[in-house]
Amino acid sequence: MPVAEAELRPKKASFHLKSADAILDEVRAAIGQDSPKSAQARSAVLAVMRRSLAEARRSAEADLIDHGRGTRCAQNLSAAQDEIIRAIHRFAVTQVYPVDNPSGAEAIALAAVGGYGRGTLAPGSDIDLLFILPYKQTPWGEQVTEYVLYMLWDLGQKVGHAVRSVDDCIRMARADMTVRTATLEARYLTGDRALFDTLEKRFEGEIMPKTGPEFIAAKMAEREERHRQMGNTRYVVEPNIKDGKGGLRDLHTLFWIGKYFYRVKTSAELVDKGVFSRDEYRLFQKAEDFLWAIRCHLHFLTGRADEKLTFDVQPELASRLHYADRPGMLGVERLMKRYFLVAKDVGDLTRIFCTSLEFDHAKPLDMMGRVTGMFKRGKVAIKGEPDFVIDSGRLNTTKADTFETRPLSIIKSFLVASRNDLLFHPDAIKQLRRSLRLVGHDVRTDKQANEWFLEILTSPRTVERILRQMNESGVLGKFVPEFGKIVALMQFNMYHHYTVDEHLIRAVGVMAEIANGGLREQLPLTHELLPSLNDTRLLYVALFLHDIAKGRPEDHSIAGARIARKFCPRLGLDAAETDTVSWLVQYHLTMSEIAQARDLQDPETARAFADIVQSPQRLALLMILTACDIRAVGPGVWTGWKGSLLRSLYYATEPLLSGGHSRVTQSDRIAEAKHKLEEALSAWPKPELEAYMGRHYNHYWLRAELELQLEHARMIRAADNAHNPFAGAIRVQAFEGITEVSFYTPDHPRLLSLIAGACTMCEASIIGAQIFSTRDGRALDTFRLRRAFTSDEDEKVRANRIIETVKALLQGKRQVLIDVGKESRHNRRLRPFTLPASVEVSNTLSEKFTVIEVMGLDRTGLLHHLTRAISDLNLTIGSAHIGTYGEKAVDVFYVTDLTGHKIESKSRQKAIRDTLLKVFNPEAPRHEERAPRVVNG
User: Fold this and answer.
1) Which residues are paired to 123 by β-bridges?
2) Residue 360's pLDDT band (boundaries 50, 70, 90)?
3) Is the dihedral of CA 29, 30, 32, 37 positive or negative?
4) Between the CA atoms of 341, 343, 346 and 350, what dihedral angle is there, to the nearest 10 degrees?
5) Which of 49, 153, 525, 702 has an alpha carbon 20 to 30 Å from 868's alpha carbon atom?
6) How far apart are CA 606 and CA 786, in angstroms?
7) In 3-state terms, the chain is what percent helix, strand and coil (to 5)?
8) Cα 273 to Cα 648: distance, rounded to the nearest angstrom
9) Residues 6+ apart with CB under 8 A from 935
10) Helix, strand or coil, per DSSP, at residue 666
11) What gap in Å lies between CA 920 and CA 1, rounded to an integer?
12) Domains of the chain with bracketed CATH
């Protein structure tokens, strides 16, 4: 929205604006004696215009860097564009197509529309022009229009244009809301002023009266749809600065409605109309200025009209805007926190704006600004609540000074809204925002206020909506100062999709959805466990607190547990409850890490986890908390596969804590597994079945589940009967969101590396692998791939392509060709991140295996190169557990030496660490590997 230039420009400005007259003087000097219509003259004009445009942009960018004023930069670029267009038009009508005695038909007016019509322009923005012609036209108007347009196009500018008469403009504005909005924003540039004035007068007299409700409804519907397409939250970590929620387009929408309904020319006039207070208008200016600064910097930085703040540009933007690193928070995170706070301010201003619209427009608008159609004037008392009333269907205070006289009513208002399932009246929202200073130590330590907050936090029907309203209003951060520190905090990584405060509210919301009976298919175990819990309140509190210490220069889990020990007594929790919540916060990542990075078939995994958990109640609580946490990270992060891993860990650990089952020996487990497979394969001839059972080592029976054993048996039997040395099998698991691909082939040390390379070549993401050998020297490997297609048939097509690729590699017909440089799309996406690599070698995590845990920056083909290095170290991989958390790869390998023993030698452990760390060398050359021929035919 434009603001008066004097409001933003300091007295001294470094921007130099070249007038149209000055540009034309340069043009005349460049043309000399050439005819204005000649090709030489046109080239000279173009050269002058190109130079003037480049100088204006350099000057505007320098001014932006010097002063940091985004709105001024956009105004400067718009003003420079004005002068260039005026110069081109003036040269066209006076030199190229002069008319000595023009008639009324030989007239033309140029108007800026769209964003350009508001007097602001980003470096990469389109130039939207309206050429207004008289009703009767001559070829002269078409010639001038074409000259202006072709000159702008030759300058490399993106020009959106329309050529219409005044009658055309009015007729189309009446029928088309897009045209109406463009005409609303029209700004005179040059040419016949009377034509433009006629259009403006007719539009204001014929279109705008009595169509306010229609226009408001259309603009709000557009806004809602835009928000929906952008994810309907302003707290995504790669926001769209123009069209995202809380972005510039939201401010533009307010301007359109304000100009249309309140008949204002500038945003400052909204103060005189009583829509904004002066403080709110200043907030409007600051938000607009910051967003324009970000947008202009972004366009200058990328050299194009990028509107999305992607990870790769955020660090450089932070540098240009002078956001330095601080303890516990990167400069880029500080920049993005500022962005999200501004986006929140834009949301606040939108709600305030809707207040005035509701009563001036006489139709109700909900919190999204939509006309509800369920509006009833009048107030209804709320039983037992003298401070509050239902006003026009929403919660309002009975007096304008309710919060001033009774600050506890600030917290009470959210409880009343929760109990009665009410939205807030816009007047109440204004009062809340203007009363934040009252939420001090007395309110925070008040026993009654904390009891109210605990009830809000543990009311599944309304908790997510009420917490979000408390956060949007600023009350939540004031009442819980530790929460206030993570409001709008972004973590600069690819794993988390939302700011920390939004993630916490969403995590509580997932818990509420479960309590309300939802997500039964996605989270079946959580529904089984809920009835067994002594107190579900502890889950809500733990979820609200689990990431509350993010952004500090210490482990957020440990710091969060410390915050929980201090905060829980405030809520009235006793010592035992406080200890449980604190424990949940401290260990909230543990179950997920173990489930995804450890061999769940190894008994030592469950024993070590049981030592941490120590009780069945805590195990159930941690299971549910972990599921809620992962689901709240972002779309697509939770998968059925992750759920199955968590359930497997739970079922392996629960008997060790409950004492419900006796300790089963390893030989008993092997015998039971064999017996189950023999029953499932009872149709096989007995000699064949006995021979098959004898081909597997003992660890196969301990580590492969029955369904996988059956898949292997069918694959091996078919291959042996056909005398095929190589076979593959596919099992699509829709619920888990994975596809299993198994391979049966003669074994050799680099087989796992080749399969990983084939998966990379086929653009498949590996999330786990189980590696077995048979007693007759065959390899039996199963890879679990992240599902990429909605159709099972498409999944099978990709899996078959991987099988054929592996076969070709083993036959020597193909090579593993993986670009490990920085040019792949995946690697370019990872470019802005730095992450130190680490390699841990442990002999305590498994009875049989040495466990190697590798962490570092992900890249294309990383698993292929890691497994190749492990093969070169003469190690045998028993199982591999592959994890990717945004840009971070966490790969865990269970290995032995070639004799089947752990790696005990300290020097050899050091060699493992050194070798695997070298894999993360970003300068590694392009690797081409030809496999030894091990398969015939």
Assistant:
1) none
2) low
3) negative
4) -120
5) 702
6) 25
7) 55, 15, 35
8) 63
9) 725, 726, 745, 746, 807, 810, 811
10) helix
11) 49
12) 5-206 (3.30.460.10), 214-361 (1.20.120.330), 376-479 (1.10.110.30), 501-663 (1.10.3210), 725-820+835-929 (no CATH)
Sign for the CA dihedral angle at 378, 381, 382, 387 comes to positive
Query: Which residue bears the tokens 């956060």?
Result: 471
**591-603 confidence digits (pLDDT tens):** 999 999 998 888 8
- Single-letter amino acid, residue 917: L
Contact between residue 639 and residue 884 where contact means Cβ atoms under 8 Å apart: no
**Token pair listed for 837:** 């690599």
Distance CA(865)–CA(753), nearest Å, equals: 7
Q: The tokens 């590798």 sit on which residue? A: 854
φ and ψ at residue 413, rounded to 5 degrees = -60, -40
What CA–CA distance (Å, rounded) separates 306 from 229? Answer: 17
Round to whole Å and give the CA distance between 656 and 664.
Answer: 11
Strand (E) or helix (H) holding 878: strand 875-885
The Cα 857–Cα 922 span in angstroms is 10
User: Cα separation of 166 and 174, whole Å?
Assistant: 12
| Residue 376: pLDDT over 80 | no
The 3-state secondary structure of 301-333 reads HHCCCCCECCCCCHHHHHHHCCCCCECCECHHH
d(CA 115, CA 118): 5
Give tens-digit pLDDT for 559-582.
999 999 999 999 999 999 999 999
Q: Which amino acid is at 644?
A: S
φ, ψ dihedrals at 386, nearest 5°: -70, -20
What tokens appear for 409 in the block?
């009513």
How far lies 422's CA from each of 359, 433, 514, in Å? 19, 18, 22
